[in-house]
Amino acid sequence: MSVELHALQALWSLGTQHPETARRVLDETGARADDCQDVEWRLVFATIEERVRRLVPLDVVTLSQSLAEKVHPSKVALAADYVVPGSERERLEQLRDSAARRRTLEAMRAVAVRLKEGAPLASIEVDLRELPQHVAGAKVRVRSAVGDTLRLVDSAEAAWRSKQPLSLATGWEALDGVLRLTPNLHAIGAHPGVGKSAMVAGLVRGWTHRGVMTGVLAWEDDALDMQQRILACEAELDLKAVQGDRATDDEEKVRWSAAAIVRADAEKFLWVDDAHPRGTVADACASLRVMRAKGCRVGILDNVSCVRMDSGRERHFELESALLALRDTALELRMPVIIIGHLKRGQTSADEVTTEPKLSDFAGAASWERFARSCCGMWDLSDGEPGLVVLKQNAGTKGARFRVHLRASAATVTGLELMPKTDKPQGGRYSR
Q1: Which range of residues forms the domain containing residue 130?
Q2: What is 274-319 written as a DSSP string?
Q3: Which of 92-101, 116-125, 285-294 has the lowest mean pLDDT?
Q4: Which of 144-158, 209-223, 303-317, 369-383: highest mean pLDDT?
Q5: Are residues 221 and 98 part of one domain?
Q6: Do 227 and 358 belong together in one domain?
Q7: Any bridge partners for residue 152, and if so which?
Q8: Nearest to 205 by CA among 168, 171, 241
Q9: Closest listed residue to residue 278, CA positions, set 307, 255, 302
């Protein structure tokens, strides 16, 4: 469903059940008919709003009669539907935000056209300064957008002068040549047992060793599990030995002790939240803000399925709202946020782990495509190592495939190797 339809249903729900509240929410959110881009939705919104403001009772028959020959009956029926109580304000705010973004974009495009046509730079500067006055209802957002753009230019210049990239390097050269972890929302999805946890441990190990402050919301596995994986990799020990807190000989004891010393220094650059195993989206965003305040340059949420959603709402809408909140938080904090998630189960699961995933395999794929800056999928190459494919990346390469090298005993990633396009590992499948 569109943002516009969601907003109409919200207004209808409030208007039929709590008319005075509906009128107040309209005033507080600033939502209005002109925020709808679709002409028919605009007419429906205006008709409902007019009755809400006059506190006239709403009913489907009267609404249909008022809009006869103007709006298709099916649209009227869709609009006159109820939503989960408590979500109405959010839906109207989303409509307002969507409209503000659209108007801002239109105004900026007009400025871009004038710039391309050779308009004097002095007049372009005036246009930019006056932009908020030309975009009705979006003054704050436009100022923010212009400010963000200018800050981005400043950041780019500072990065150029200091030779520091704007994106965060993973430390794996092959992957860094393709994937850009910019301050935004990024996703890694796979079926259980393919290697997501190993991937997380490998990223954390690399970043903390390089002095990159890293935050992890360990909501699927606790902090101890991840630390044991990393320690086993450092000591070149079997993970089971580390988990069992035992070494079989003196040599292993020495390696274990040396690894512990190495990790003790690196642990200064790691902050783990495993206190909310079934936290809400609000908990996740709050934890990310704490991470940033502690100096973290990247945040990892493992796993999105552990986030407690509003059970009274449709699942796809819950996911969309969660990803939007996490995306906005990543942008607000100016740091990459990596979301780990499971892929959808197919009709038959016998070989799904050995089949290269597609973006449509993500649960709620449309939401991931809309809000995630990049999406990667993992699958089993059937030789003891996973594969990783870049399924989506805004303004970047997609479709690149990598072999993920594991230290099998530690279940931790040690490196990635770019696979040729024609490479088809035995036992695995490609879906082009």
Answers
A1: 1-164
A2: -S-TT-BHHHHHHHHHHHHHTT-SEEEEE-GGGSBP-TTS-HHHHH
A3: 116-125
A4: 369-383
A5: no
A6: yes
A7: none
A8: 171
A9: 307
Examine residue 430 and state whether it is found in any structural domain, yes or no. Answer: no
> What's the pLDDT score for residue 28?
86
Q: Are residues 115 and 213 in the same domain?
A: no
Instruction: Name the DSSP class of 362.
Output: B
The two three-digit tokens of residue 358, written as one number: 């597609």
Assess whether 181 and 158 both reside in one domain.
no
Give the separation between CA 199 and CA 325, rounded to whole angstroms. Answer: 24
Mean pLDDT computed over 281-292: 88
3-state helix, strand, coil in the chain (%, to 5): 55, 15, 30
Give Dmax over CA atoms of the chain in angstroms.
87
Flag whether the pTM goes above 0.85.
Answer: no
94 domain-assigned: yes
- Mean pLDDT for the chain overall: 77
pLDDT at 332: 87
Answer yes or no: do 151 and 250 share one domain. no
**Does residue 424 belong to any structural domain of this protein?**
no
Q: 119 or 364: whose pLDDT is higher?
A: 364
Domain membership of residue 225 (yes or no) is yes
At 26-56, the pLDDT tens digits run 988 889 898 998 899 999 999 999 999 999 8
Q: What CATH code is carried by the domain that includes residue 92?
A: 1.10.860.10
CATH at residue 400: 3.40.50.300
Counting the structural domains of the chain, the total is: 2
Domain identity same for 197 and 271: yes
pLDDT per residue as tens digits for the range 116-154: 777 776 666 666 665 555 454 444 444 444 454 445 445
Distance separating alpha carbons of residues 403 and 417, to the nearest angstrom: 5
**Greater model confidence, 104 or 337:** 337
pLDDT band per the 50, 70, 90 thresholds, residue 302: confident
Q: How many CB atoms lie within 10 A of CB 331?
A: 16
Q: How far apart are the first and last CA of the chain?
A: 29
Tell me what the mean pLDDT of segment 231-258 comes to: 58
What are the residues facing 416 on neighbouring strands? Answer: 404
Boundary (domain end) residue, out of 141, 164, 187: 164
Residue where one domain finishes, among candidates 131, 164, 197: 164
277 CB neighbour count, 10 Å cutoff = 12
Please check whether residues 151 and 191 belong to one and the same domain: no
- Does 360 share its domain with 389? yes
Quote the tokens at residue 160. Answer: 């150029």
Torsion over CA of 87, 92, 93 and 95, rounded to 10 degrees?
130
Token pair belonging to 328: 């906005």
